[in-house]
Amino acid sequence: MKKVLNVVVTLCVLLAFLGGAQAAPKPDDVVHYRQGVLMALGWNIGPMGAMVQGKVPFDKERFAFLADRVAQLAPMVVEGFDVSTKDAKSEARPELWENLPDFQKRMSDLASASQKLAIVAGEGDKAAMKRQFGVTVKMCKGCHDEYRVKH
Fold first, then answer.
1. For residue 18, is it within any domain?
2. What residues does 148 pair with on adjacent strands?
3. Residue at 105 is within a domain
4. Residue 64: which CATH number?
5. Do 97 and 86 touch, CB atoms closer than 8 A?
6. pLDDT by residue (tens digit) across 69-93?
7. Domain count of the chain?
8. Nearest CA to 118 among 52, 65, 77, 81?
9. 16-44 b/e with 16+ CB inside 10 Å = b?
């Protein structure tokens, strides 16, 4: 029994060591990650915007579902803006890297606003949902205006 326990403990230690020994992702992979997260954010924000603008009927349950997704995705964005990607091909303007602390603060604020959006959406007050959605997308626009290549 003692031999089995030693083998199990040894395997656990080995697996823990190997799990922590990952190589850093390549800059292009990091850019692809952030583009994917940003695309997913847009995928969920778009239908909410259509509801807020009256382009489609307002569905409180769907809105809340989408707001929950946005709240989960928003904190993930900043992970994709690693300094290793500074010279990788992307739509990030050089100013982002020069003002990285400002960008990171904006991402933190976006995550907080997204969390609040999910909470408000869960409460079901349509007017409050629209207001918080406006606050949240204004933050998105601010970063795009400041740090994204204009097309």
1. no
2. 92
3. yes
4. 1.20.120.10
5. yes
6. 999 999 999 999 999 999 999 999 9
7. 1
8. 65
9. eeeeeeeeeeebeebbbbbeebbebbeeb
